[in-house]
Amino acid sequence: ARRMGTEADIERAARILNEGGIVAFPTETVYGLGASIAHPEAVARIFEAKERPFFDPLIVHLGSVGSLDRVARIPERSKEAFDSLTQAFWPGPLTLLLPKRDGVPDLVTSGLPTVGVRVPAHSLARRLLSIVHAPVCAPSANRFGRLSPTLADHVARDLGTRVDFILDGGPCEVGVESTIVTLAEDEPKILRPGGVSREDIERVLGKSIEVRADSSEQIQAPGQLASHYAPRTPLRILRPGESSQARGRIGLLAWSKPRTGYEACEVLSTAGDLREAATRLFAALHTLDRMGLDLIEVEPVPERGLGLAIMNRLRKASHG
Ligand code: TXA
Ligand code: MG
């Protein structure tokens, strides 16, 4: 096991970021690969390290809502939604798309007029962001299209020496990426389901909200690309109640009960708890993916609460 980041490690990570390096750091959702937005050449290195296309914009991470003014503007018509959402969910797994300010390099936003911003809740991330001089843009710390990292070890295996430093904050509590909500249009819309559930957002807004995550009419977030979050092993989602017809070495990602007849079985939550399932999702997939199986079969989970984000990731992982 790796060593949890100490105060000295946080200071080292901050120094590297301030000097234009790239650092993997923990958030409550997944590990991020960060660069200071004051160093566009470091931002460019993130795309290289991940082999990520430049058309895929990065989320900007703030230490507090107070520094939002440096990167974004709140449209008059979205002020109320902004206040309710940030009071309810920041710090936490919610990213808001807002009109960007000129100070944000175009590389960060892929030339879009909007910027994604969030205030993460992980204590190490908060401490780090409070001592780095500029906001930190960070995608998930994995190669483009691959499984997201929820342990420092996942980052080390996937990106290794491509990053200047990995700050270890233990396992990520939420386990799926932030929910992305745009506040740059007439009505708030969910562009990526994630760690804050649609139900909780609707409760706070006092109205229903459209989820546009899987629409193909317009790709706004490449998390919306059909294949994403994918293991190297082929993955197939079973229909409810379906049992395997496949031959070979098959692994199962089970919802709440272990099943026999598989080479390996990972259970997302024996208690049938969708939060626990989200927390375990990527680590379970990483484990199965390392076993050299012919196929990973997946039991669907209920599509409510965090189940919406889980099934969104699994569907994308199954489109090789
Ligand atoms: O929880 C998270 O959001 C994690 C942690 C590290 O904060 N980050 C994350 O970043 O998931 P990434 O890059 O793997 O996914 C960000 C998604 C991408 O699909 C990107 O296209 C979308 O956010 N995005 C970012 N800025 C955007 C913008 N201005 N307009 C539309 N989509 C945007
Ligand atoms: Mg990602």
Outline the structure in words.
- There is one protein chain.
- This protein is an alpha/beta fold and 320 residues long.
- The protein is globular and about 55 Å long.
- Helices cover 28% and strands 17% of the residues.
- It has a 10-stranded mixed beta sheet, sandwiched between helices. Strands 11-14-12-13 form a 4-stranded parallel beta sheet, covered by helices on one side.
- The chain has helices at 7-18, 40-50, 79-89, 106-109, 123-131, 152-159, 198-205, 274-289, 307-317; strands spanning 23-25, 32-36, 59-61, 94-99, 114-118, 136-138, 165-166, 179-182, 189-192, 210-211, 235-237, 250-254, 264-267, 295-298.
- The chain binds threonylcarbamoyladenylate (TXA) and magnesium ion (MG).
- Residues 139-140, 148 line the site of magnesium ion.
- Threonylcarbamoyladenylate (TXA) binds next to strand 4 and strand 5.
